Structures are given as structure tokens and as C-alpha cells.
């Protein structure tokens, strides 16, 4: 272990109580993706801790989603920066904290966003502080904390790509897997909002004059779901449908939300072309379909994480725990950095599970070792 890594690891070794206190403070703030005030309140706690250690924090305001925070630790010798990343929004509506705030049962904590990903935000902040206290890295070190990842990073993506382009590495502290593993690959995801237009008619008096948008949509859903190909990693899922006026009216409109998942950038154009062909087909005479692209997450491909994972695995062994890499079908901001060709590793937060549910949990005893492993990994890039 390098002297920088040892000093950072030693600094973190005694910080568990502080980390738990910060986690409770973050969890006990409602910060749903469109709650800009709550998201910014989470950011204020993070910024105050960083600034107290002399780490500069810049805010990029956004009236809809809350600000993006960028923390900067200048490098001692310069060169391409290293990023640590995280998102401050959760999936939970306002009032969730009042109903079920942070609680703990031994080494397990519960509460909205405790794993996804307020535990990871704690790790990020303490890793930045540890490396600053240890004397700093040769390269610039950047903390980037966005506000809208849970809804596709509509404002965060542009800033992530601007900051990450040309970076030496990016580390995303999404929750560690239930297995204890980190994430070495993720699927990309694209949402499409589909609209089918038909022709209304009375279903009893002049049924033949109608053109059912619901009938056409039903045919398209069957065809869209048939595009799922598990061996290649492509899945399609229509998760929401709406349409029609009354039971006795041939439906003149119908809508659906389609989720597409894919393993590699190269798969996206091909699957999208097949979807477009299905939507262009006139399954019911007199109907037509259009779509609007929603948020797009790029995949994190394993080739972009392999070197960093090898370093992280060695760092974890030095701290005293074993870890493997894991693939997940979920999307995250690390896909944006990986798609730029930046070496990227994800799932580096404390071990947790049941994200997006009332059962969400986080293992408090993994806060310090996961932070130590990340700090040591970053320090090895300086060697």
C-alpha cells in the first residue's frame, strides 16, 4: 500500500460514528427527484462538510431538479482528473420521512434512500475528505453530485459528460450489491412514450365505422415483447398503458410506455429500428402510431471497468474483505462516463438492498471498509 493510501485508510478507520451521523441526516430529508428544495438541502449538508475541510464546492443551479454540486481538490502535479460520483435524489414522495424516518437495528439501517444512494454519498464525501487530509493526489480529484438520476438524469447528464470527458477514471458510489460485490457492468436503457390514434365509433350502433387504437396497441405490445432476447441481454417491457373513453366507444386513442434494456452501445440502433418497424405497421386499418423518446441511459460495458476492478479487488483485500464484480440490468450515471471511454466502476457504496421500497436497508458496518477500499483504489492511480 502506498503512503498516500495508508494515510487515507488510517484517517477513515475511526470515522464510523461520523459517517452514520451524516447518513441519518441525509436520509431524514425528503429529496424526491422533483423536490429541488429537498435535494438542495441534502447538498448543503455535503457541501458544508467538504468546505469545512477546505474543499471548494461549486453549485450549478437548476430550478426544476435542484443544483448539481461539483467539489474540487486540485492535483499536486496535474494531469487528467479522477471523478467520484453520486446522485442526491430518491424515488420517494414528500412525507415519506415523516412516515418512516431513519432507523437502525444493530448494524442495519433503514429509511428512504438509505442505500440508493445516500449511503454512497456519505462514502464519497468521506473519501474526498480522507484523500485531502492525506496530502492529496497528484491528479485533480472531483466530486460530482447530481440531482435527477432516478428519472434519467435529464439535467445531470450534460454536466456529467462535460466534466468526465478525458478523465482518468470515474467511480460511482451506487449501493454495493446484496452479495457484497461491486458493479462492473450495467445495461443501458431507453424509454419510449407511444401514442396510437384511431377513430371513435359507438360500439353497438356503428362498430364497423371505428378503428380501435386499443386493438392496434394490443397487437403492437405483443410484437414489442417478442423482441426480448435474454441471451443477448435485450429486454422490452410495456409497463404502462392508457386509452379509450368508455366501454361502449371504439377507442380513438391509446398510449403506452415502453422500456428497452440493452448490454452494449452497438445494440441500441438495431433494436430501435425493429421497434420503429413495429410501430409503423397498420395493425388495425385506420390507426397510426407515433412515439417520443424519453430518457436514455448508456450501458456500462465490462471492458471499461476491468482495470479499475482489479485495483479495487486488491484494495479490498488490503482492507480485509473479498469482493467480486457483478452485472446488473439496472441503469446508472456510470453508463455515461463509460460510454465516453472513461474507465468506470460502479456499486462502490455500502452494501444495501430493497432499493425503491419501504424495506430499503443498508449495512452500517460496510461504510468504513468500502470507503477505505475506494480511497486506496484512487490512491493507486497516483502511483
UniProtKB/TrEMBL annotation:
Keywords: Carboxypeptidase, Hydrolase, Metal-binding, Protease, Zinc
InterPro entries recorded: ArgE/DapE_CS, Bact_exopeptidase_dim_dom, Pept_M20_glutamate_carboxypep, Peptidase_M20, Peptidase_M20_dimer, Peptidase_M20A
Pfam families: M20_dimer, Peptidase_M20
Organism field: Azospirillum lipoferum (strain 4B)
Location of the Peptidase M20 dimerisation domain: 184-285
EC number: 3.4.17.11
Enzyme class, first EC level, given as a word: hydrolase
PANTHER family: ACETYLORNITHINE DEACETYLASE, BLL0789 PROTEIN
GO molecular function, one term: metal ion binding
Active site (UniProt): 89, 149 (proton acceptor)
Domain of life: Bacteria
Cofactor: Zn(2+)
Protein name: Peptidase, M20/M25/M40 family
